[in-house]
Design brief:
With 222 residues, this protein is of the alpha/beta class. The chain contains eight helices and six strands, in the order βααβαβααααβαββ. Helix 2 packs across helix 3. The N terminus is likely disordered.
């Protein structure tokens, strides 16, 4: 767990608004995207413009996004009125699903039904980090390592500043579990809505989640 207490927050800390991209065509069709991509929908464009208005009074010093089209496009629309260039990174990408990308959730979940049962019911929180669902699927550990490393670098480079980071549902889910915001059983796949945003404070090492909007926690999970 790498969270900060309220008392330890400093004015030199970086404030990060971590946003999931808007709706895409594959979201509507319930297909795994991973490192693959699909265009954002008309509804998605409206969602991005709405977020731009929602963040209108927030001064962002920099904007970063995954280099995947759906995240980059979301970031560009949100940041348009602020006249900030969007800097992209592969480190902010969604989990890699390899040959499974493009499959429907129904097919994928059925194919790995037994593996998911073990993931949620038998292995510990620590073991889930390196749990191999399939050799084509990126583990939690690999995903969070690249993501956290990038966020730490960005936070150190933007001390005392506020930044916008646009990423993906699986990546944000892994981050929230890693920081101790919720356990894997409480934050199932699909719990991070399009346009969800997390307000995080970081000194470049630790993270404190101050606000989470668009996150659905599973009640009664252990």
């Amino acid at each position: 767990m790498i969270t900060k207490t309220m008392a330890s927050i400093s004015k030199r800390d970086c404030t990060i608004y971590l946003v999931r991209h808007v709706e895409t065509k594959w979201n509507v069709r319930h297909r795994l995207q991973g490192h693959g991509d699909s265009p954002i929908t008309r509804r998605g464009r409206r969602q991005a413009r709405k977020m731009g208005r929602q963040f209108k009074h927030i001064h962002f010093d920099a904007v970063y996004s995954s280099d995947l089209l759906r995240a980059h496009r979301t970031a560009k629309i949100i940041a348009r009125e602020k006249k900030l260039a969007v800097q992209t990174s592969e480190a902010l990408r969604e989990r890699h699903f390899g040959k499974h990308e493009g499959k429907t959730f129904e097919v994928f979940n059925e194919e790995f039904k037994e593996a998911f049962r073990r993931y949620y019911q038998e292995v510990s929180e620590e073991e889930r980090r390196t749990f191999i669902l399939d050799n084509q699927v990126e583990t939690d550990d690999k995903l969070i390592n690249r993501f956290i490393t990038f966020l730490r670098q960005v936070a150190l480079a933007n001390q005392g500043k506020t930044i916008l980071v646009v990423s993906h549902g699986g990546t944000i889910r892994a981050f929230l579990i890693h920081t101790g915001f919720a356990k894997a059983n409480e934050l199932r796949f699909g719990a991070i809505a399009n346009t969800c945003y997390i307000k995080v404070v970081s000194d470049g090492v630790d993270f404190f989640v101050k606000e989470a909007t668009g996150v659905t926690l599973r009640a009664g999970s252990k």
